[in-house]
Write a structure and sequence with these properties.
Elements lengths: L2 H6 L14 H8 L19 E28 L5 E27 L2 E6 L4 E4 L5 E4 L3 E6 L2 E6 L3 H14 L1
Antiparallel strand pairs: 1-2, 1-7, 2-3, 3-4, 5-6, 6-7
Length: about 170
């Protein structure tokens, strides 16, 4: 670490996410039992229970487009404020894709999947979930045409909880 990184902080978010989910709750999920967790961080409706709460990083992609290339031609000044330009531009569109990582907490309740964060937070009903794709350290949730990619300590655990909730509905 250098002077400037100590002074201004590191803007990069680490891909390592420490788990906050109790080991007993993970064991229950692995045995096919939905754990019930107490949380005061989210507001739940009557009869709604929280089954999963974990740290997560939401990954979104930002696409910026610009043109690169060359142009040739010339400009002729006609009057004091009027210039005539002739020539052509051989520009090629270039897309730059950058990943934006947002830290937050993911909650899976009996009715909703909630991501709590400063930016890009979401609250979606489990009934609108189209697909849940687990990875070793991430999960991809699709609600209709909108897809959310979340880095979590254990993507399989969220998938198991979601499958148990859908099966019980």
């Amino acid at each position: 670490m250098g002077f400037f990184s100590d002074l201004f902080g590191n803007n990069q978010i680490s891909d390592n996410i420490p788990a906050i989910m109790p080991a007993g709750a993970i064991d229950q999920i692995n045995r096919g039992i939905l754990p019930v967790m107490n949380t005061d961080k989210i507001l739940m409706t009557k009869g709604e229970k929280c089954h999963f709460a974990e740290r997560a990083i939401l990954i979104t992609e930002k696409v910026s487009k610009h043109y690169e290339g060359r142009s040739n031609g010339y400009s002729v000044k006609l009057t004091k404020h009027v210039t005539y330009r002739t020539g052509r531009n051989k520009g090629v569109p270039v897309e730059d894709v950058t990943q934006i990582k947002t830290k937050g907490l993911i909650y899976v309740t009996s009715k909703r999947i909630i991501f709590v964060a400063d930016k890009n937070a979401f609250d979606k009903k489990c009934s609108t979930l189209t697909a849940c794709v687990p990875y070793s350290n991430a999960v991809k949730l699709q609600f209709g045409t909108k897809t959310f990619t979340l880095m979590v300590p254990d993507g399989g655990a969220i998938n198991d909880v979601v499958n148990m909730i859908v099966a019980n509905s």
